[in-house]
């Protein structure tokens, strides 16, 4: 089975079963061997469960979202909790699908009143609610304290030294000095500022021109290569942890920027409901691999230097967004 | 129209109409103002036109591919010309769609005989057919000779100086010292080697374990963030220049690695035909923006530092794959 062999080595998927000891070390095998205490449970109040209308075959389409924790984007996340509690998204739709960019949803009519108290926060997107010292502590990130050999936070001037280890050239995004993870979430920093970044499946808040910052009622998720020019210009509020394929495979809109035109309004995907996990009688349980864990450190290293049977030349580096934090559903 | 406003500023699309002089400078406006002589026509023999079965609404689905020019991956490109001339792909299918990774097509049965002479080339993927001096010349790229202010090819050690201009931190991929474009195609180099890279919509050759290098009969295209670990391990042979949405929006396969399972074999998309442009009575005409042109240089700079009305904080850098080389269809 030529294709299967080739494809197996290409995988980004995380198999649920443990790898056998004889098999080569892959990102999947590292995750499979992580110990139970290296996984962190996502609180039900940090989950959003979005039920789309069933697909053409009648299959259900459920999208599960993990809301970003403090200190990032909290004013918008609070709005989202209010909107979800008010069942505001019920009956709205996915109304924009732009190839290699974003899928966007909310109220296509732009006339649905918002619940009381939901306004665009007066805030910037590079958030330092902890003060300069707090920002510095956050900026140290998770892996720097556990992974000196990766030297992710080396200043660019000393990057050549770092490259002797894992060549983290690609950890650098835009004008950031470095990136790292904090409590399961990737961020970038230039030591003055710290900000959450856009990766595939991450969710942000659509907005009008500044000073508008958006409310969180209209949301988008990234379905192509994440664009660094979005960082610090739009609020990152969460990420899709299950069901991403229900959004990324939707037909592209033929209108400007991927909006469905009036003639193709039937392509809009109805949103049946959006609920906070804490509102559900039986919320699903998800865990993410602690980004301070030893297994996560190994996972990053293996991702940056794939050398199992399929690979001849290790990349020697990996984009921070290519290191998707492993998430798994826990059986009920 | 709040959403439209927000979306307009988010655009990656290239409008066909020229921008008015009063409008802010955007990547689109730069491309719209490029002069006629800055565009290069793609030869008909470098085009592949793939006709998929019509969609559920009966709309045609045509995918146009630009084959990569010398010196990159030429043994595979020659195989592809032979396969297309033999009409080998007619009646095959798109049989694998893995979310955020690849769409793959060819012969799902793995039993279709290949035309005579089509074998896996004995080659590496970091190609230097010109010898060390030629590699160095190629490695200098297009923009370095035209864009000293971008200092794309500065050695990493002097990167801080570069950052005074456009902070090209994100031009660095994996263990490459730098990236640039050569005759319209992005590549990476470490001065010893030069290699083409995987970007969104780029097409590569599926293969078995080394020393197999694939023939070009089974092809994939990138539908998510491009992964640097694919570079130098798989042959890059072209890119989709029109109709990418017909591949990226296909339903994801539920089998391992996105292969359609036997139960969902009907989800495979039939390939009606694949033809070289030179075999068509009326081939379409496409042009790309010359990567040595002044407009391309400006385009890169604006991409790296979006500062039109929507953006408050310029990124100060851009991933080489986020600088998609502009391509346009010429009216017949």
Brief rundown of the structure:
2 copies of one chain form a homodimer. Chain A is an alpha+beta fold.
Largest interface: A-B, 89 and 89 residues
Mean pLDDT, all residues of chain A: 81
N-to-C CA distance of chain A: 36 Å
What amount of the residues of chain A lies in strands?
Answer: 15-25%
Oligomer: homodimer
Strand order in the largest sheet of chain A: 2-3-11-9-10-5-4-12
Report on the biggest sheet of chain A.
8 strands, antiparallel, barrel
- The total count of strands of chain A amounts to 14
Explain this structure.
Two copies of one chain form a homodimer. By secondary structure, chain A is an alpha+beta fold. Helices cover 19% and strands 22% of the residues of chain A. Chain A contains eight helices and 14 strands. In chain A, the strands form three sheets. Chain A has an eight-stranded antiparallel beta barrel. A three-stranded antiparallel β-sheet of chain A has the order 1-13-14, with no helix packed on it. In chain A, a hairpin with a 4-residue loop joins strand 7 and strand 8 (194-196). The first copy, chain A, is globular. Chain A starts with a helix and ends with a strand.
Blueprint (SSEs and pairs):
The structure is a homodimer of 332-residue chains.
Chain A: H1 2-10, H2 27-32, E1 39-41, E2 47-52, E3 61-67, H3 74-85, E4 93-98, E5 102-106, H4 131-140, H5 143-146, H6 159-163, E6 178-182, E7 185-189, E8 194-196, E9 202-205, E10 219-222, E11 236-242, H7 244-248, E12 269-276, E13 285-289, H8 294-304, E14 327-330
Antiparallel strand pairs in A: 1-13, 2-3, 2-12, 3-11, 4-5, 4-12, 5-10, 6-7, 7-8, 9-10, 9-11, 13-14
């Amino acid at each position: 089975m030529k294709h299967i062999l080739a494809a197996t080595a290409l995988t980004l998927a995380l198999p649920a079963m443990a790898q056998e000891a004889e098999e080569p070390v892959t990102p999947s095998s590292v995750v499979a061997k992580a110990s139970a205490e290296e996984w962190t449970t996502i609180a039900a109040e940090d989950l959003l469960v979005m039920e789309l209308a069933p697909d053409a075959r009648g299959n259900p389409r459920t999208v599960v979202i993990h809301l970003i924790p403090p200190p990032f984007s909290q004013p918008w996340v609070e709005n989202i909790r209010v909107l979800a509690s008010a069942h505001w998204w019920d009956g709205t739709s996915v109304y924009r699908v732009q190839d290699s960019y974003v899928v966007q949803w909310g109220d296509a009519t732009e006339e649905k009143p918002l619940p009381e108290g939901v306004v665009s926060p007066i805030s910037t997107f590079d958030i330092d609610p902890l003060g300069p010292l707090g920002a510095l502590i956050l900026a140290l990130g998770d892996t720097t304290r556990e992974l000196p050999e990766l030297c992710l936070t080396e200043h660019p001037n000393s990057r050549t030294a770092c490259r002797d280890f894992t060549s983290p050239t690609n950890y650098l995004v835009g004008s950031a000095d470095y990136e790292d993870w904090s409590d399961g979430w990737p961020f970038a920093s230039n030591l003055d500022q710290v900000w959450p970044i856009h990766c595939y499946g991450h969710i942000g808040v659509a907005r009008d021109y500044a000073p508008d910052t958006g409310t969180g009622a209209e949301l988008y998720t990234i379905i192509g290569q994440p664009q660094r020019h979005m960082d610090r210009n739009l609020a990152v509020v969460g990420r899709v942890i299950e069901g991403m394929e229900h959004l990324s495979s939707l037909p592209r809109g033929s209108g400007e920027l991927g909006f469905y035109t009036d003639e193709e309004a039937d392509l809009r995907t109805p949103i049946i409901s959006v609920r906070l996990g804490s509102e559900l009688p039986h919320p699903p349980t998800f865990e993410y691999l602690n980004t301070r864990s030893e297994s996560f450190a190994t996972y990053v290293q293996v991702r940056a230097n794939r050398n199992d049977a399929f690979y001849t030349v290790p990349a020697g580096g990996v984009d921070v967004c290519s290191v998707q934090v492993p998430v798994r559903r826990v059986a009920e």
